[in-house]
Amino acid sequence: MKNSKLFWLLGLVLVLSIFLAACGGGDDTSNETETPEETDTDAPAEGENAEGNTGEPDAEQVLNLVEGAEIPSMDSAIAEDSVAFNILNNVNEGLFRLNEENVAIPALAEAEPEVSEDGLTYTFKLRDANWSDGTPITAQDFEFAWKRALDPEVGSPYGPYMMAGTIKGATEVSEGADPSELGVVAEDEKTLVVTLERPTPYFMSLMAFGTFYPQNEAFVTEKGDDYASNSDNLLYNGPFMLTNWDGTGLTWSMEKNPEYWDAETVQLETINVDVVKETSTALNLYQSGEKDRAGLSGEFAMQYADDPEVVKELEPTLFYLKFNQERNGEETPLANENIRKAISMSFNKQDLVDVVLANGSLPANYLVPTEFTFSEDGADFREINGDLTGFDAEQAKEFWATGLEEIGQTEVTLELLGGDSELAGKMDAYLKEQMETNLEGLTVNLKAVPFGVRLELDEAQDYDMQNSGWGPDYQDPMTFIDLFVTGASHNLMSYSNEEFDSLVEQAKGELAQDPAARWEAMAEAERILIEEDAAIAPIYQRATMALQKPYVQNIISHPFGGDYSYKWAFISGKE
Amino acid sequence: MARYIGKRIIYMVITLALIATFTFFLMKILPGSPIASADKLSPEQRAVVEARYGLDDPLPVQYFNYMFGLVQGDLGISINQFKGADVTDVILSRMGPSAQIGFQGMLLGTVLGILLGMIAALRQNTWIDYSSTVVAIIGISIPSFVFASMLQYSLGLKLGWFPVALWKDGFMSSVLPSIALAMFPLATAARFIRTEMIEVLGSDYITLAKAKGASGSEIAFKHAFRNALIPLITVLGPMAVGILTGSLVVEQIFAIPGIGEQFVKSIMVSDFSIIMGTTIFFSVFLILVILIVDIMYGIIDPRIRLSGGKS
After folding, report:
1. Model confidence at A16: pLDDT above 80
2. Statement: the pTM of the whole predicted model exceeds 0.80
């Protein structure tokens, strides 16, 4: 009897201690429902290199990472998500690759291609390089892969998306035309000739994107439906080879690829990756020393903000309010320019990023992100326009009064459509509070919906204001600017300005070969969009934070395509 | 008995067909596209991708195609979670870990729960009884994901007794998730056994047994326990449901490559074929559990007659 009492007491103490221990650590289990756009924040983030400790590499070169989601497909023709593009960037390679300064440099291409006078024909010479099974990489491998990515039978989303309108004949081929009409020809084993629809100044950076990687026809045909179904049914030509991936599992590795043409640069021997979807779990694994990096999403960013092992990374992803000018066939109050201007000046972005987001994001008074595109002499595109419309409560009130007078109303009720994650909710509540405080007579109704629903409402143009975001698809300001030309598939807010449209048209057409004038045109278009028309109201440029062990060196983060390169990474001082 | 089982299996098939139908149409009402980059594609480009996965057919056609495949055991291919992978393969490859932690959790929970319930009943209204009630209430009311996180933080990270997460150290990796899953069956079993035992202990035949001089333990195990077990079998079904739903979050928290974890993801990315396949798989499992429970009834208590059975 005495013993049994003791036993139960012990049990009770144990149970209680579990609670106390857990509470003491401030452990939190948030079941985050992030929008697809946000999921990559969990990825094994990046690298502003930890300072100091740039000593010699250790003998053991093993990096342990977590990833936020499974690999949906390793077939470069089919891939459409950040996890796959990130791995593809490390186990494969295209004609070009983004280097440590995020400049596209020749990779499988031997040198810069020969470009014709009119800027439409690119002739690439390939370097001598092999697939991981020893077969040489040929120009035919590129031709095959690109045509495959456009084949309707394959059903690739990114093939047509990346190639249509850029490579000659891509639109037609993606809709079922004869593939030989595509402007991609392997003249011989080492010569690839690409014909474009229109001059494309950023074409080299596209060549670093996963969809444009080569595939070995013999291998793909031999594997048939099994191609890319696991790590054995793939060929690699990049710094690493994917191993131990069973196709549906939560774990895989990357091993150094001895056949890689630049293998001597690669220092890491093995990268072990495990999919961990809960941020709190990833942090526990980081703290137990099993993982070398862990992303800090949502409220975890604030919690760890002062940790010495935090690394911050600015992403070229911009969030902004879309102002819908026409809903269900009727003009909304947002069709009035002064109303739009008033709202776009009515909220304090600095406080938003400092207090609500607290993850290093920047307040944005612009559309084209900072640290994203650079001219030939290294100047940031942002330097042309600098800051456009920012927070100014006094001016906002003036515009508001004028606007209300013009539309003949004293009170306006607007809906603000946003995401359903906890963070999105907090942010939208903050925006509502700011707008309603600074603009008398304005009522903002929040509508929080899942990502899929938001897309549907966006498409139906069934909203007033929408908290929306965009990440780049290629390294050029145009990937942001042309979202808003009249009738563009992302416009969906009845914004139309002839001058804006013509500037975009010029930048895509006659100015394509004059980089400086082209940038001026795009900058002017951006200024019209934001300052003159207030068609959208920029909010912030996203940054992410991660914890990274101080012995991890030189993981390079990229603004588009694969998020990270491990080619130059190494471990130093772990012991 | 054989006839009874045969009849039950026919009902099972009907139930499954209904579940499949409901899930199919409910899922089609779900907003969002299974194409991850749908927001970027033009309508023509989207149509091409939809055609690839047969999503362009009219809904009834899609439905009959699906049901026809289902009858032949074909669950289709994944649309975006594991592009092009066979859904059956996906589920099979994820089954092992789920089955292991589910079974261990169930076993641990029921055995501990029974013990706890029995002791509480035998020591009714003492502090032992009260603390067992507290444990039961904690087990019922704290969601398994909270419990899982606490276990991970305390026993995993702080004390280092078990792996923090991941599925790499064999049995050791399964301990914490199994405990997290065990809480619900433990609490349920403890409450039921306690109530039943108290009722049985108060009945006439126990008094008779006592009068005849049977020892305390003999009464507890031989007479009271077996009768108290019957109601517990009734709750095996709900307990299995609890384990199953618990596994959705517990697997995610411990980053275990199980079905539950993968099911959650498939819903978030609207991968229709995976959602369908997993729902059907879960349904088959639960229906089987219920059938087994009903058969066990007859074995444990012959007084409970199966309709048409003369066992």
Report:
1. no
2. yes
Containing domain of residue A336, as a range? 315-468+476-543
Q: What pLDDT is recorded for position A15?
A: 55
Chain-centre distance for alpha carbon A404: 38
Output Rg (C-alpha) for chain A, integer angstroms. Answer: 26
Domain assignment present for A34:
no
Residues of chain B found within 8 Å of residue A490, distances taken between Cβ atoms: 39
| A72 vs B: CB within 8 A | yes
pLDDT of residue A96: 95
Contacts of A160 in chain B (CB under 8 A): 41, 45, 48
Q: Please enumerate in sequence order all residues whose Cβ is within 8 A of that of A44, keeping only pairs 6 or more positions apart, or say none.
A: A65, A66, A67, A273, A293, A295, A546, A564
Which single residue is written with the structure tokens 């009271």? B224
Looking at domain B90-304, its CATH class is mainly alpha
Tell me what the mean pLDDT of segment A519-544 comes to.
94
Which residues of chain A have a CB within 8 Å of the CB of B153? Answer: 21-22, 25, 27, 284
Domain count, chain A: 2
A328/A447 same-domain check: yes
pLDDT at B83: 83
> Residue A273, class by beta-carbon neighbours within 10 Å (0-12 exposed, 13-18 middle, 19+ buried)?
buried
Question: Alpha-carbon Rg of chain B, whole angstroms?
Answer: 24
Q: Chain B within 8 Å of A121 (Cβ-Cβ)?
A: no
Q: Flag if A22 and B37 touch (Cβ within 8 Å).
A: no
- Which of A8, A225, A249 is facing B131, going by the closest CB pair? A8
- Closest CB from A17, A274, A287 relative to B166: A274
Beta strands at A442-448 and A412-418: parallel, antiparallel or unpaired: parallel
Q: pLDDT tens, B184-207? A: 889 888 888 888 888 888 888 888
pLDDT confidence tier of residue B126, bands split at 50, 70 and 90: confident
ipTM: 0.86
Whether residue A332 is contained in a domain is answered as yes
Mark yes or no for CB contact B156/A288 under 8 Å: yes
pLDDT score, position A14? 54
Residue in chain B nearest A79 by alpha carbon = B83
